[in-house]
## 1
Amino acid sequence: MTLLVTGGAGFIGANFVLDWLAQPGPAGRETLINLDKLTYAGNPETLSSLQGDARHVFVQGDIGDATLVARLLAEHQPRAVLNFAAESHVDRSIHGPEDFIQTNIVGTFHLLEAVRSYWGALEGAARSDFRLLHVSTDEVYGSLGPGDAAFTETHRYEPNSPYSASKAASDHLVRAYHHTYGLPVLTTNCSNNYGPYHFPEKLIPLMIVNALAGKPLPVYGDGLQVRDWLFVKDHCSALRRVLQAGQPGEVYNVGGWNEKPNIEIVQTVCALLDELQPRADGQAYSAQITYVKDRPGHDRRYAIDAGKIERELGWKPAETFETGLRKTVQWYLANPEWVAHVQSGAYRDWVQTHYAHEAAAAGARP
C-alpha cells in the first residue's frame, strides 16, 4: 500500500512522514511518496534518517504541476493523498502574498483536478476506500474576542491575512470537490503546532534560537495575543486517526486545549532555557525580550474546540503544553547542527530585515 504526501519536507509534513514510518505493524511498512517543492521552509535534512529506506520515495516538485502529480498517481496508485503543501507564514504573506495565492489556491486546484481524475478511474474497493486528507489551519476562522467560545467546525470563515484567506479558499475548493464530484475528502483545521524540526521563523523556535544566540526576543505589540498550542506529534496522531476513521466530507478541528498568550510562551521558553542551558553571565534569558511593532491585522485570539474529533473518533492530545514544550526545547538544544544549517541564506536575510524594520518602527518598549 502507498500514500502520496505533499509538502512532506516541511515542518508538519516531515514530522508526519517520520512518525508514520515509525509506527509498528502494517502502517509502518507502507510506502510514502513524498512530493515537496523544497522552498526555503522545505528541509530534506529533516528526513536524512530515511536515506536508503525503500519505504520513502522523495520527489522534488510542485503540487501545481498537474502533469507530475498525475504521473505519480498513475505510477504509484496511492490509497490516499495527504496535502500538507502550503505557504504558511503570516508575516511572509503580508510582505509577498502572490506565492500564497499560487501555492495555496492555484496549487490546491491543480492537485484536486489530478486526484479527481485518478479517483474517477479507480474501481471497487480501491475507489470506495480512497481518501484525500487536506491539512488546514484555525486561522481561516478569523479572530475571537476574550469571552468568545472556541472555534468549532461550523464557525463562519473570516480570514484576516493573505495567508489565512488563501487557506480558506483552498478549504472551500476541497469542500466543493466533495459536494460537486463526490471526491472523498477529509479536512482538518489545526491550531498552532510546535515541536522538533520547526523552521525558526515561527514563535517558539525563533525564541529558542535567538535566546541561545544572545539576540533580542521579538514580541509583537503587547504580547497578549492568545493561541492554542498543539504538539506536532499529537497532530500526527490525529491525522492518522482521521485518515483511518474520518467520514468523507467532514471537517475535524485539531487542537491541544492549551490557550496561552504569546508573552507567556516566550517567558516559559526563557525559564526552560534558564534551567537547561543557563546564560554564561548568569542573567535570565527573559532580559532579551524586546517588544516590536505589531503586525498589520494581527488576530487577537484563536481557540480550537477539539470536541468533535474526541467524540466521534476517540482522539485527544497525549502531551500537555508543559511536557511538549520541554521536549521541544530539549530537541533544539540537542540538535544545533540542524538549526545552524537552516539558518542560512534567504531565511537569515529575511528574518534580519523583517524584525529590524519592526523593532525600529516600535521604538521604546511599552
Note: Residues 358-366 have pLDDT under 50 and may be disordered.
## 2
Amino acid sequence: MFLRNHWYVAAWDHELRDKPFARTILGEPIALFRGADGAVVALEDRCPHRRAPLSMGKVIDGGRLQCLYHGLEFDGTGACVRAPSQKEIPAAMRAKTYPVVERHHWVWIWMGDAALADSAAIPDFHWLSTPDQWGAKGTVMHVKANWQLIVDNLLDLTHLATVHLTTIGNAAIAEKAESRVQRTEQGVLMTRWVMDAPAPPTYVKAGGFTTNVDRWQFIDFAPPAFLRLHVGGVPTGTGAPETFDGGIHMRNLNAITPETETTSHYFWAQAHNFDIHNPKTTEMVFKQITEAFLEDVAIFEGQQRVIDRDKGPPEVDIAADAAQIQARRILTRLWEAERGSTRAAAE
C-alpha cells in the first residue's frame, strides 16, 4: 500500500558523490547521479537497451550517465545522446526519469504522476540546514520492516518507558504523562507533558539536570511518513507548560521511505539548540539517539518476522494508540483516493 503521489527522501546529499548511486524506492530501482550542472538526476535503474543496471555505469564528462554494458550515454532528461556503435539513436532509447529536489541536505523524489510534483509540498525540515541556530546530525538506517511499523512507533512514545531506559526514557513517560491528540490540516499532532519527574539519562547528559524536570513531546505527523518531534525539558517550577524557555530543546526529524512492502529506508536526524557549535555535543546527542533507535529497529524487525510468519488475529488497540489510529485513517483515505484516481484515469 504505497502512496505514490507524494515526495519521499531518496538520499542524503552527501551520499551522491562521483558515481551513480542505487536505491530501491516503493519497489522501483532508481539510479541517482549529478548531471552537468550538479543537479541531481533520478533515472530508472535499467538501461532500455539490454536492461543492465545504470547504477553500475559511470558519470562521464558533461554529466552524462554511461551504461557499463555497451557504453550508451544518457543525459539528465533520460534521453540517450550517444551510442558508440552507431550514429542514429532510436527515439525509444530513453530511460524513465523522476522529479527530484534537493532541500535541507536531503534529496527528495516524486514517485507518482510527474505533472503533480509540486516542490512547495515538501515538508519543512529546516532544522537540518540552519547551523547558526541548530546543531544537527543524521543518518539513514536500512530496516527489515514495513514503513508503517516505524510510523506507529514514533507516534506512541510510551514505549520509551520500557525500550529506552538507558537513554531517552524512564517510567514517568507512561505513568505520569498528560497527552492530547488532535487532527491538523495535513496530519496529526500528539502533545504530551510529563511534569515534575526525573530527567532520563540522555537529558541529564545534555542538559546537566540535577533536579526533576518538566518535559514535553510534540509529535507532528504528516503523510505519508514524516514525523517531526519537538522534545525537551526545563527544571520543574520554571513556568512550564505555559512557558518553557531555557532548558534543552531538541528536534527529532524522521522521514521513512518504503523500499519494499517489508523493508524501509529510515532517514533521521537529531537537532539541538544548546552548545550548537561544539561538535562533541552534537556527536554525544547523535550517539544517544542512535543507541535508542537501534533498540527500536530490533522491535520493528521482530514485529515484521511475526507478521511474515502468521497474520494472526486482529490487533487490539489501547489508549496510547490514539495518534496511530488517526494517522492510519488518514493514510487509508489517501490511498483509497489515489487508487480511485488511478482507476478513473485508466478507464
Note: The chain has a mean pLDDT of 91.
## 3
Amino acid sequence: MSRALARLRETTGDPLLVRARLGLVSTPRALELREWVAQLVQDGVSVLRPAETLKLKQLVRTFTLRTSEGFVENFGAELIARVAEEAPGVRLCFVQKSNKDSTPLRDGLVDLETGVVEEKTAPELRVQALFRDRLIGVVRMGHALCQGEITPARYAAGRHICVSRQGPDKDPIDEALIPFGLERKIAVVFIGGFSSALALARVSDLVASVPERHSGNLRAGMHSFPLPVSTPDFTISLHWHPRLDADPAHRWLRRCVRNACEQ
C-alpha cells in the first residue's frame, strides 16, 4: 500500500493522504479524485461484466421516459403494446419534456429522453436518431386554405398561432418569410405546446404550424398542407446516459422505442 500510495503521489503531484491525530485524512485533491475513480470503476465493471440473458417475462421494473409533446399521443400506444406483450411486468412512466436541461438524465431520474440534439445537450449522453420531422400547416376543415394553391402571401395573410419554446421572435417560419417581404399575423402564442395550438385551430379560423410526425394523431379530421416556404427539417433522437448503455433491460427498451417509431 505504501508503494502504491507513493506512485500515486508522484503521478498526481499531491500527497493525497496526510497524517492527523486519529490517523490519515484525505486532501481536497484526493476527495476530487474519488468521484472520478468511482465512475471509472463503474464503467470498467459494466464493460467486463458477462452478458446476462434477459428474461423479459420475469422482468419487473419501471422505466421513466421524458418526451416532447406529441410523442405519447402518436407513438405511445404502439410502444405500450410492445412492452406489455414482451415484458408484462414492466411499467412505463412518461414525463413531459418542458425544457432542454439534461440534468434528469445525468441524475438518474429519467431512463430515456426524446428530442432534438442541440448545443445545450450534454456531450456525454448517448444519442440515436429515431426519425426526421418537418413543420406543416394545419387548419380546420372548411377553412379558406383548404382550397387552391397556398402561396407564401396567402399563408402569411391568415391569422396564426405561433408555437415556440424560445418565444415568438425565434420562429424559423418567420425567418423564411423575410425574403418574400412577408410577415405572419400572430394572434396567439403557445410556448412549447402544439397540442393546444391544434385544439384551438380545430374550432377557429386560426392557422397552426406544427411538426408533421409528432402531430399525426392530433391532426385527425383537420386539413394539413406543406408550408409554402422552406424551413429546415429536424431529427428526433433518443437520448440516454452512458451508465445505462450496457444494461440489458435498457437496451431492450431502446429497441422497443425505435420499433414503435418505425411503425
Note: The first helix runs from residue 2 to 12.
## 4
Amino acid sequence: MSNTILHKADTRGDANHGWLHSKHTFSFANYHHPERMHFGALRVLNDDAVEAGMGFGKHPHDNMEIISIPLEGDLEHKDSMGNVAVIKHGDVQVMSAGTGIFHSEYNKNKDHPVKFLQIWVFPNKKNVTPRYDQITLDIADRHNKLQQILSPDKDDAGVWIHQNAWFHLGNFDKGVTTDYNIKAKANGVYAFILKGDVTINDQTLNTRDGFGIWDVEKLSITADSDAEILLMEVPMTY
C-alpha cells in the first residue's frame, strides 16, 4: 500500500523580501513547519523570483547537494572555486558543497525578474571535495515524455549528485498519459507541478502543488491540461 503526502501550492511558506519572493515547500530560513522538514533526502524546494539586478550575496554551504533549475531569465553564479557562469531556462546547475563553499547568485537582467527552483538534497557522503557543474538540455526532449536531468551516475544523462536520486522534467500535452517506474526500491518520488493540471495515481494536482508518494513501484501520470512537471526520486532513508 503506497503512502502519500500532498502539499497544495497555497500552503507553502511565503517569504517576500521585496527583491526576492520565495515560496518554501519545506522549512527554510524564517519559515518553520515541524511537519514539513523534508521528504526523505529532499530537504529544500524553494520557488524563487529575484527582481532585476538583485540577488544573493556571497554565503556559505556545506555537506549538501544543491541543484538550481532556471525557469525564466538569466541567473549569474560566482563561487569560491573560481566558477563564474550564467544559467538560463534549459540549464541545470549542481553544486556538491561538501567540505564547504561560498557562492553568490544574481539576476543578470536589468529589466525583468529571474525565476528558478533551488533544491537541496542530503548527500550520501560527508565532506566530499566541493564541485560545480552545469549542463544545457534540449527542452524538445521532454515533450510528452520524461527527460532525465539528474542521476547518481556521472556517465548517465543529466548532472549527477552524491545521492541515489533521479530527477526528470516533462512537458505534456492535454490528455497524454505516461508511466514512471521507481528506480530504487527504498526511494519515493516528490512531484512538483510547474504548471497545469495533472493526475498522478488518482491524485489530482494543480500548478505549484507538491505530491510525495512512496512504497510504490510506479506512477501513472496523466496531463489533464497542457502541463509541466518535475519528478524528484530520492531515498526515503539516508
Note: The radius of gyration is 17 Å.
